[in-house]
Amino acid sequence: MKAHDGMYIDGAWRPAAGRDVIEVVNPADEQVIGRVPAGTAADVDTAVRAARTALPGWAATPPADRAARLAALRDVLVARKDEIAETVTAELGSPLKFSEGVHAGVPIAVSGSYAELAATCSFEEKAGNSTVYLEPIGVVGAITPWNYPLHQIVAKVAPALAAGCTVVLKPAEDTPLVAQLFAEAVHEAGLPAGVFNLVTGRGPVAGQALAEHPGVDLVSFTGSTAVGRQIGAVAGAAVKKVALELGGKSANVILPSADLAKAVNVGVANVMSNSGQTCSAWTRMLVHRDQYDEAVELAAAAAAKYGERIGPVVSAKQQARVLGYIEKGVAEGARLVAGGTEPPRERGYFVSPTVFADVTPEMTIAQEEIFGPVLSILKYEDEEDALRIANGTVYGLAGAVWAGDEAEAVAFARRMDTGQVDINGGRFNPLAPFGGYKQSGVGRELGSHGLTEYLQTKSLQF
Ligand code: NAP
Ligand code: MG
Q1: φ/ψ of residue 372, rounded to 5
Q2: Whose CA is nearest to atom 28 of ligand 1?
Q3: Which residue ranges run through the membrane (predicted)?
Q4: What is the tens place of the pLDDT at every residue in 362-381?
Q5: Residue 334 shares a structural domain with residue 453
Q6: What DSSP letter does each residue of 157-172 carry, written as one string?
């Protein structure tokens, strides 16, 4: 797709206030593939005004009509799914098959789910002598990262629109092209002018202006805990609602009764997918000491198979960050059993699929989010030890438990301080609430819980 040199505001592509641009780079070959405008506070202000002007009309649009627009949006995404996949592959670097199935496929499922939820939610409840109306919160400022660039946009915009909110989106500077494609899709789907607005730009400039803007009622952010903390502070000072989807360091707990080979192989695949750039990735594998050596061998062999298939990480900066963590793992005494700091190719921001054994819970690579294809394997003594290790980080976004008996896995999962747990490889469900315990975030996305985030209640007593 050809990049737009303007912002999508109030139903049209309009020139940016300033002249600064962002170069979009293909991380697989380091070539510049497009340029988009770097928005300023002035662009954000124009977009927020458009969203405020459009709010009363969209909020008063019957939910069935909002549902119809969301269904039309889903249909446009379906019609343009190949273009979406190619765009994400070009700017993020993920293999085309993964882009087709996940980067294009999941947003189609999620937008479809909100077309249905908008049509079926009554937006009204009874409680004793009260009628409770569920009303849109207002103007939403959405700030999204680059790792699942379209999914993270749709996971905010679709429920916001279903609820009757209007939106200003500031997508990640590394992946603005699929955001522009999304704005085209919104336009084609016939959403009224001003209901959705796009300001491309840099986080500390456009992102911060959006988070601080008094015309924004809810800031919904996905990204690093460091920036999420800042946004939470700004929103708190303004008594503004905030939703934060932050990092993770999720545990893949393999209980002794599990099918070890399956649990290890699926666990390695989970970490290597999207080059390890997944906030919910199971980056810590927990194995009983009697099975530890066998698990390490299986994981090293599984990781070696990804050498040819894995895509690059998103940028030179991200590559340097991931390699820094690998160096730190070695320096702190973990044992490298696959991969390492040697880049597998001369060109492109590639990192070898890497596995560390003999990782102990206090090591940096067992505590911090690396966001690259790096797995840490930890040893536990018994179930209580496994639980302590699993719960022993500041994060709590996702996780997995494997056991011979499902009830045994469920009992363990119920004791984990985390927002999602996949039991014996249970698959991703776009209707299940997604979000974190502890420092992994505030609020939930997806499904009916995700819709609730964009609603506020008004009670009338009779
Ligand atoms: P990030 O800085 O948190 O970026 C997320 C979004 O916030 C981007 O749109 C970014 O804009 C914007 N942003 C940055 N600074 C801002 C500010 N002061 N005010 C408002 N918005 C701001 O994340 P990153 O730098 O891309 O990645 C760094 C690390 O964060 C990764 O290595 C990973 O550990 C973690 N991460 C987590 C997730 C997740 O899904 N939980 C996603 C991405 C990254 P720019 O694109 O212009 O920076
Ligand atoms: Mg950043």
Answers
A1: -155, 175
A2: 224
A3: none
A4: 999 999 999 999 999 999 99
A5: no
A6: HHHHHHHT-EEEEE--
Q: pLDDT category, 180, cuts 50, 70, 90?
A: very high
For residue 280, give the ligand nearest its CA.
1
Write the CA distances from 31 to 27, 35, 112, 346, integer angstroms.
Answer: 8, 12, 35, 14
Q: Residue 329's domain is classified under what CATH number? A: 3.40.309.10
**Token representation of residue 122:** 């009554």
Spacing, Cα 203 to ligand 2 middle (Å): 6
How far apart are alpha carbons 160 and 51 in whole angstroms?
12
Residue from 86, 91, 173, 245 carrying the catalytic annotation = 245
pLDDT tens track for 271-310: 999 999 999 999 999 999 999 999 999 999 999 998 778 9
Bridge-based pairing of strands 12-15 and 6-9 is antiparallel
Could you tell me the sign of the dihedral formed by the alpha carbons of 145, 176, 272, 347, in that order? Answer: negative
For residue 145, the ligand closest to its alpha carbon is: 1
Distance 171 CA to ligand 1 centre (A): 10
Which ligand 1 atom is nearest residue 321's CA?
A: 32
Taking only the tens place, the pLDDT of each residue in 56-108 is 999 999 999 999 999 999 999 999 999 999 999 999 999 999 999 999 999 99
pTM of the predicted model, to two decimals? 0.98
Query: If you average pLDDT over residues 103-115, what whole number do you get?
Result: 98
Cα angle: 272, vertex 202, 455; to 5 degrees: 80
- Co-location of 234 and 364 in the same domain: no
Please tell me the distance from the alpha carbon of residue 416 to that of residue 251, in angstroms, as a whole number.
Answer: 9
Alpha carbons 45 and 237: distance in angstroms, whole number = 20
Is 175:153 a contact under the CB 8 Å cutoff? no
Domain harbouring 142, CATH code: 3.40.605.10
Q: For residue 170, what are the β-bridge partners?
A: 143
Q: Which residue range forms the structural domain that includes residue 208?
A: 6-246+439-461
pLDDT at 308: 78
**Which atom number of ligand 1 is nearest to the Cα of residue 318?**
32
